[in-house]
Amino acid sequence: MAGGQISLARAYLSAIWLETLFYGMNFVLFWSCLFVLIIRRRTPKVNKTLVTIAVIMFCFSTTHVSLGFYRLIEGFIVLPNQPGGPAAFFADVSIPANVAKVGLHTVNSICGDGVVVWRCFLVWGRSWKMCFLPILLVLASATCGFAQTYFFARATDLHSAFSPELEIWNGALFGLSLATNVIVTLLISTRVWYMLRLSGGSANFRYWRVLIIVIESGMIYSVALVCEIALYFLNNNAFYIVYDPIGQLTGIVPTLILVLAGLEMTSNDVHSRMTKSQITKLAFQPGATESDETGTNTIPLDPMRFADSSTLSFRDKPQHPTVTFDEVRSAA
User: Fold this and answer.
1) How many Å apart are CA 246 and CA 9, to the nearest integer?
2) CA angle, 292 as apex, 288 and 297 as ends, to 5°?
3) Which residue in 60, 174, 188, 288 is deepest, having the highest Cβ count within 10 Å?
4) Is 258 exposed, middle or buried (0-12, 13-18, 19+ CB in 10 A)?
5) Which element (helix H / strand E) includes 213?
6) Would you state the pLDDT for residue 289?
């Protein structure tokens, strides 16, 4: 075994253990997302599109981790004594359970990338020009992903995901997915930082601003992809330790974005609230001009002055008419 290399069986066992931890996070986050989008929604109607996307991604993530457990049981319990042991079983990429995992991974990645591109579309004011290249990259990633699944199913004579025949499609898929996420991350983070910088805010808000940028841009997923690609082209079995948990990250990151959108805590919502707050303050400032920099017409107000009651003379005070008893009797 080469230095720094771990056995395939150990790598796969570690990968499933780590994926299980991420699935626990995904499970809690999914039900929180449904609670926010359905019960605590701030719109008259439920956004069925967002709910459907969240449900589909969670179902794919659940199936992905289930297939991983199935392969784990097959390799270590059902077929431990076959030639080559568990390592030979996990190295066979053409096993139907493994092919299904690869296909689910591709579909979930497409859904996740689609949600991130959707956020980019909204952040940039529904501009299709800014999303044209990311959309093309997502379509190219989908093509390579389904081609990868097809060649995995036919690779009965190949016993490694690092085979040159598979490396072409794996490398293309990982590279396109990374390019998509890096470009979208830069587009979203730049726009969000600019919008929130205009909004100002306290020191605590500036820390919160960094968190919003990290979540909305999908930066976590991009970092995971960089690690995945590096380990894959190093032909290191530790690649599997990153590859399988990414199957959960493809659901976690978009679901986080959906939760932010449901809670109205995205950069657009924060920027809108801060802008309205600043307009309100300007509108009630003494001596405000009729049209300020925001383009909002405000009513000029002068300071109100109140006289001291001690300076008022008796004649300044309002006189109320008095009626005597004799006047009442004569009137009767």
Assistant:
1) 19
2) 80
3) 188
4) buried
5) helix 203-217
6) 47
List, for residues 137-184, the tens digit of each pLDDT value: 999 999 999 998 998 988 877 778 888 888 888 889 889 988 998 898
For 190-194, 196-200, 220-224, which range has the lowest pLDDT when averaged over its residues? 196-200
6 close to 238: Cβ distance less than 8 angstroms? yes
- Comparing CA positions, the residue from 180, 95, 183, 187 lying closest to residue 145 is 180
- Asked whether the whole model's pTM tops 0.85, one would answer no
Tokens of 116: 């991130």
Q: Is the torsion defined by CA of 175, 178, 184, 186 positive or negative?
A: negative
Which string of DSSP letters, residue by residue, matches 135-158? HHHHHHHHHHHHHHHHHHHH-TT-
User: String of b and e for 144-162 (b: at least 16 CB within 10 Å)?
Assistant: bbbebbebbbebeebbebb
Tell me, what's the pLDDT at 41? Answer: 79
Stretch (H or E) spanning 75: none
